[in-house]
Amino acid sequence: MGDDVLEDIERQIQEINSKINKLSSQREELYRLKEQIKNKILEDKSTALAQIDWNKKEYSFSSDLDTCLKNTFKINSLRPYQLPAMNCTLSGTDCILIMPTGGGKSLCYQLPALISKGVTLVVSPLLSLMEDQIMALEKLNIPAKMLSATSSKEDVNWIHNFPATPILGVTATATSRVIKDVQKILKIEGCLILKASFNRPNLFYEVRSKPPVQKEFIDVLSKLLKNDFKNQSGIIYTMTIKDTEELAKDLKNAGIRVAPYHANLDAPIRSKIHRKWVSGEYQVIDII
C-alpha cells in the first residue's frame, strides 16, 4: 500500500510539473508578445513625432528663443536640426539628436536653458568637454557651474532627484542598436530622433612621411606650425605619455608655444593647460 501511495504522489507531482512548464511557456510567450506590442507602440509614437513640423517658429517661446539667440549668443541664424531639437524639448518632448562634431549640439540645450525656468543639467563623459562648455559660457556671461569627480562633497550635495523633465541626448555618431540602448537606459523610448548629415566638406586630410631622424622631424613639424598653421591652434596626438613629454619639450625648444596634456598630470594642471590653449597662450597641446 505504501508503494501505491508514493506512486500516486509522484504522478501528481509530475502532472503539476507538466502544468508549471506549460504555464511557464505561456508566460514567456506573453512576455514576448507584450514586448513586441510595447515596441510597436513606441515606434508608432516616434514616427508620429517625426511627422510634426518642429522647424516652425510659431510656438509660445519662439520669440524668446530668437531674441536670446541674437542678443546673448550673437548668432543670427541656426543650423539644420538645431531649431527642431530646441522646439521639441521646450515642448516637453524627449529627443535624441545625432549631429557631427562641431555641428552645434551644445546650443541645442544651452539656448533653451536660458529661456526656461529651473536648472538644466548637462552630463558629459569628458572633463575637457565640460571645461570647454564652461569657458564658452563664461565668455558670454552666462552663469554655469561644473561638477566632476574632482568636485568636493559640498559641491555635489545640491543634486537631488529631478522631477520628470524632457531629456535631450546628443552624440556625433551612433548606430541604430546604440540608439535603442540609449533610449532604454534613459527611459525615453518612443522619443523623437533627429539625424543631421555627416558630410563635412570643411575637413581636409593629408598624409605626410615622417622623417626618420628626430631632429629632422622636429624641424619639419615646427616649420609647419610656424608657417602653414601660423596663428592657428591645434592638437598633436602621440602614442605614449613619454612621447608626449619628449615631443612637447622638443617643440618648445624650437620656439613653439606648446604643452603636454595627459592623464598623469593632476586635474588642476590639465585644466590650466586647457584654458591656456583655448585662450591662445599655447598654440598646440601635445596629447596621448
From TrEMBL:
Keywords: ATP-binding, Coiled coil, DNA-binding, Helicase, Hydrolase, Isomerase, Nucleotide-binding. InterPro entries: DEAD/DEAH_box_helicase_dom, Helicase_ATP-bd, P-loop_NTPase. GO terms for molecular function: 3'-5' DNA helicase activity; ATP binding; DNA binding; four-way junction helicase activity. Its EC number is 5.6.2.4. It comes from the Eukaryota. Residues 6-43 form a coiled coil. Residues 86-259 form the Helicase ATP-binding domain. It is an enzyme of class 5 (isomerase). One of its GO terms (biological process) is double-strand break repair via homologous recombination. GO terms for cellular component: chromosome; cytoplasm. It catalyses: Couples ATP hydrolysis with the unwinding of duplex DNA by translocating in the 3'-5' direction. The keyword Transmembrane helix does not apply. SUPFAM superfamilies: P-loop containing nucleoside triphosphate hydrolases. Belongs to the helicase family. RecQ subfamily. This is DNA 3'-5' helicase. It comes from Armadillidium nasatum. The lineage of its organism: Eukaryota, Metazoa, Ecdysozoa, Arthropoda, Crustacea. The gene is Recql.
